[in-house]
Design brief:
alpha+beta, three-stranded mixed β-sheet, 3 strands
């Protein structure tokens, strides 16, 4: 197993603050490079919270340093600016011609009339 793979396995033990999932399964780890006893890890966060960033940086450095053959770990964190969502990576929204707005009808419980409401709403809007 390469050092990069070993580091990735170690990072699977780093949980995102407030969640039970790890940062690898969330897709936050973008790049891992290891050479000469050093590791470089790139994270791309979806939050601009500096406390979360600092906590993840420390946890990642500790996890990477625990891998045999790694003496030093450097973590680069990319965050979106405050008030801005991260840029989509080439994803284009699925758009249908003639559809400008979408109305969602939802409930956590079944049998409460979601389908009936959606059908009646569609017919009422079409009649306008």
């Amino acid at each position: 197993m390469s050092l990069e793979n070993s580091i990735e396995e170690a990072l699977k033990g780093v949980q995102y603050p407030g969640y039970s999932r790890d940062i690898v399964s969330f897709g936050l780890v973008k790049n891992i490079v290891a050479a000469n006893g050093s590791a470089s890890i790139d994270l791309e966060l979806t939050t601009h919270n500096p406390e979360v960033a600092a906590q993840l940086k420390t946890a990642c450095e500790n996890a990477a340093s625990s891998v045999e053959g790694i003496d030093r770990a450097m973590v680069q964190i990319k965050m979106p600016p405050a008030g801005q969502a991260p840029a989509a990576t080439g994803a284009q929204p699925n758009r249908m011609p003639g559809i400008n707005k979408v109305v969602a009808v939802a409930s956590g419980k079944g049998g409460v009339g979601k389908s009936t409401t959606a059908a009646n709403l569609a017919l009422a809007l079409a009649a306008e």
